[in-house]
Design goal:
The protein is mainly beta. The strands form three sheets. Strands 3-6-7-8-9-10-11-13-14-15-16-20-21-23-24-27 form a 16-stranded antiparallel β-barrel. It has a five-stranded mixed β-sheet with strand order 17-18-26-25-22. The longest helix has 35 residues. The chain is globular. The termini are far apart.
Length: 511
């Protein structure tokens, strides 16, 4: 009885549960049918990023605007050999490179990431463009958790104007990299790889012909040394060629301009610029520190001219090119030996000295815009140079570039006399010493690159730089190591030309 009663109760429960689920299913079917009548058959896909084809590949519209943006950049790792970063020759005392002592670095490394942001908007005045390239890098010798943030370029372009930090319009489009070399120390012409702050205007005449004018901030970038030869100079100047720089304040920008013709087969450019030379005050009696009542020389104006030509579509092969430019400067030496290159050069040789009893040989060169003495005007330094480069593509993945440069700096009669009076007083001179501050630097180099896949390049380059100085005889240096933080002993050092080898191995991934 008990068992049959429970069985009947279970049957009733099952019937109730079944009815509940059947009713629920019917209700859901009714609701679903009603909702389906209100929905579209197929939803249209949403385009979150719209391609902008107005300015080439890689641009997209910023959502909700008519501004196009392109994000790009690169990552690179370099090993510089027998010099500083970016294949800097060992021609000064940075990391004891010029001394060739045991404390010098035989190599230097740099890791750099660059992020490039380019925006463009069409307006009734033409395209409004902004560009910036923040860089993050880590160099040899830095603390592990540190790094450097730099900005080479950051500018706005509008209606033909450029405002901000950009490549100088004085420079040719290929600059110092006609051979696609990575070094930042190729001389013989203007090199503005890190940009200069400017306000520029460009006229486009059609058929590839344009002209530009600009005012540019010349402080540091376009200033060499200005030597007050009546001022007592540091004893280290005899050792490294760096004098007290007697430039005054920055009161006038540089004024530059160019005319450029760009065609399929060639690019040609003619550039000119003027540079203000403003000195501090005259030195006091005995070379003591200048003061305002001593007076000062009148400002002088230097100038620079450059002509360049690049030939493309050569019969030697697709992508091959030949580049050449020549420059003349007067009172504007950094337009010839510029960029990140310094204004003094020195290197020591460990070979056989010129004279018996001498310890070593040395070359010391001083790059100046001018020289003055108490009561005199500024005597401007002049110079000229030439650069030539050729790039050959062996295949779509292999290329080689070769380059040669020559730079010549000369002092006029009055400038040389003033320079030599200051330089000779720095140390005892002997062995038939004669002073001549004129000098030349010539360079030859090559770079070979392999691009196994798109946007990934491995490269190796070698550079030989020759410091051709004009002093003769010797000088006796007392405690040069103590003065300069090196290990050079007291001794006699003979003036002699010096050659410097350097190299760079690099890998770069562009995105």
């Amino acid at each position: 009885m008990g068992i049959s009663g429970k069985a009947g109760q279970s049957g009733k429960t099952a019937s109730v549960i079944g009815a509940f689920f059947l009713g629920a299913a019917a209700s859901l079917a009714t609701v679903a049918g009603a909702s389906a009548a209100d929905l579209p058959v197929k939803a249209k896909p949403v385009q979150y990023v719209k391609i902008c084809s107005l300015y080439g590949a890689g641009y997209y519209y910023i959502p909700g605007t008519d501004t196009c943006i392109k994000l790009s950049g690169y990552m690179r790792a370099d090993w510089s050999i027998n010099g500083g970063n970016y294949n800097k020759p060992g021609w000064d005392q940075t990391n004891a490179e010029g001394t060739k002592s045991r404390d010098r670095d035989y190599f230097a490394t740099r890791v750099r990431t660059e992020f490039q942001i380019d925006t463009r908007t069409q307006t009734e005045y033409g395209v409004v463009r902004t560009y910036m390239n923040p860089r993050f890098q880590f160099d040899s010798g830095a603390l592990p958790e540190t790094g450097v943030l730099t900005l080479d370029y950051g500018f706005i372009q509008f209606a033909g104007f450029t405002f901000g930090k950009a490549v100088s319009i004085f420079q040719t489009p290929w600059g110092a990299t006609g051979a696609n070399t990575l070094t930042s120390f190729m001389l013989g012409g203007y090199d503005n790889v890190n940009g200069i702050t400017q306000v520029a205007y460009t006229w486009q005449f059609g058929n590839g012909v344009s002209a530009s004018v600009a005012v540019e901030d010349n402080r540091v970038i376009n200033r060499a040394q200005l030597l007050n030869a009546s001022l007592t100079q540091p004893a280290t100047s005899a050792f490294n060629g760096a004098f007290t720089n007697s430039y005054g304040g920055n009161v006038t920008p540089d004024f530059v301009g160019n005319i450029r013709v760009e065609q399929t087969a060639f690019t040609a450019q003619l550039s000119g610029g003027v540079h203000n030379i403003r000195a501090n005050y005259y030195a006091g009696p005995g070379g003591i520190t200048p003061v305002e009542p001593n007076g000062h020389p009148s400002d002088a104006w230097g100038f620079a001219v450059l002509g360049g030509l690049q030939l493309k579509n050569l019969p030697t092969g697709p992508g091959d090119k030949f580049s050449i430019d020549a420059s003349y400067v007067n009172g504007a030496s950094k337009y010839l030996i510029g960029g990140v290159t310094g204004t003094a050069f020195d290197a020591f040789g460990g070979g056989t000295p010129n004279f018996a009893g001498s310890y070593q040989t040395m070359a010391v060169l001083s790059l100046t815009d001018g020289v003055y003495t108490t009561g005199s005007k500024i005597e401007k330094t002049s110079g000229w140079g030439v650069r030539a480069a050729f790039v050959h593509n062996w295949s779509p993945t292999w290329e080689t570039g070769i380059v040669g440069t020559y730079s010549r700096i000369e002092y006029n009669t009055n400038g040389a006399a003033a320079f030599c009076a200051a330089f000779t007083a720095l140390s005892p001179k002997l062995n038939g010493y004669s002073c001549n501050p004129n000098f030349s630097i010539w360079q030859v180099g090559q770079r070979t690159a392999w691009t196994p896949v798109k946007n990934l390049t491995f490269s190796a380059e070698v550079l030989y730089s020759y410091l051709d100085q004009s002093h003769t005889g010797s000088q006796a240096l007392t405690n040069p190591g103590q003065l300069t933080g090196t290990f050079k002993p007291t001794g006699v050092y003979d003036f002699k030309d010096q050659g410097v080898w350097s190299g760079l191995l690099g890998v770069r991934r562009t995105f």
